[in-house]
Amino acid sequence: MISFGVKYWFLLLPVIAVAAAGIVLLLYFKNDENRELTVTQRRILMGLRFLSFCLIALMLLSPFLRSLKRIVQNPVVITAWDNSGSVVATGDSTLLAEETIGIKNRISQGLESRYSLVNYTFGEETKLSGELDFSEKKSDYSDLISTITNNHFNENVGAVVIAGDGIYNQGKNPLNMLGNLTFPVFTIALGDTTEVTDALIRGTRVNRTSFSGNRFPVEIDAHFLKLKGNPLKLTVYEKDKEIAQTVITPPNDDYFNTVEFIIEAGAPGLKQYTATIEKAKDEQNTKNNTVSF
Question: Which of 131, 235, 277, 293 has the smallest number of Cβ neighbours within 10 A?
Fold first, then answer.
């Protein structure tokens, strides 16, 4: 499609045509040098001159070519699969792994014919098209949500499907981050999602650098399920030495609490600390009771 930079250019076309015709007539009917030409020759030259003047005038109107191309893009559907070991930790791990991978393959086959499908796995870190082998030691849902937000903010995303057991022990609470997403989120429950008695450390926050002799804060996110009224001790160790502790008594059966300790840096050098919640009565999974930082 040809467009022109001058507004209402089409109104100038008759003016251009009349002006070009007038110039041609003056050149060929009032010029004695053209009398030697035959009528046919003069008509050809007049036609060429007329076209030349019209083209030159049109060029002064700043023409440009504009092409329209229609591209149909399927909506993007993002699937994210929990690759942490907790997904297959509550039964026959081989059977659970096979069933989960089978679910993933069936969903992928059903979606990829109608949508642009993007697959992620997540655990300690989020990976694009990662292998689903349930080898990750932690689950960081907040990193997954941040990755999706940053990588797909300008795409036509139809939906996000998150498949996992809902257990996270690294990063922020994912429920506080879902508001950053501008598209619907669907979930698939994997593993044993039944709430059982459990005390776990969701995460820690600490300044990685501190000067010798200074005191620095450590924040520990503790979560207690089905432990209402049961006092449990949260302890921080430097190697095998206890350096801080507190007792937490959950007021309900789904209690989340961030505990802050002030710790003295001590002698210079690299230090490793460990936070531990004591085992509760009838607690089955104690692997998430301890975190090192």
Answer: 131
55-65 confidence digits (pLDDT tens): 887 777 666 66
Ordered DSSP codes for 152-182: STTS-EEEEEEEE-S---SSS-GGGTGGG--
Does the domain at 198-292 match CATH 3.40.50.300? Answer given as no
Residue 64: its pLDDT value, please? 63
Please state, in angstroms and rounded to a whole number, the distance separating the CA atoms of residues 91 and 192.
Answer: 8
Q: Which of 155, 5, 9, 3 is nearest to 77 (CA)?
A: 155
| pTM exceeding the 0.70 threshold for the entire prediction | no
Give burial (CB, 10 Å; 0-12/13-18/19+) of 292. Answer: exposed
Using CB atoms within 10 A of its CB, is residue 41 exposed (0-12), middle (13-18) or buried (19+)?
A: exposed
Give the CA distances from residue 280 to residues 90, 91, 160, 223, in Å, rounded to whole numbers and listed in that order: 19, 22, 36, 12
The span from the CA of 257 to the CA of 237, in Å, is 19
- Neighbour order of strands in the sheet with 215-225: 198-206, 215-225, 254-264
Give the DSSP letter of residue 267: S
Given a contact cutoff of 8 angstroms between Cβ atoms, the answer to whether 277 and 201 are in contact is yes
Return the CATH fold of 76-189. Answer: Rossmann fold (3.40.50)
- Cα–Cα distance, 209 to 249 (Å, whole number): 32
- E strand or H helix at 212, and its extent? none
How many C-beta atoms lie closer than 10 Å to residue 189's C-beta? 10
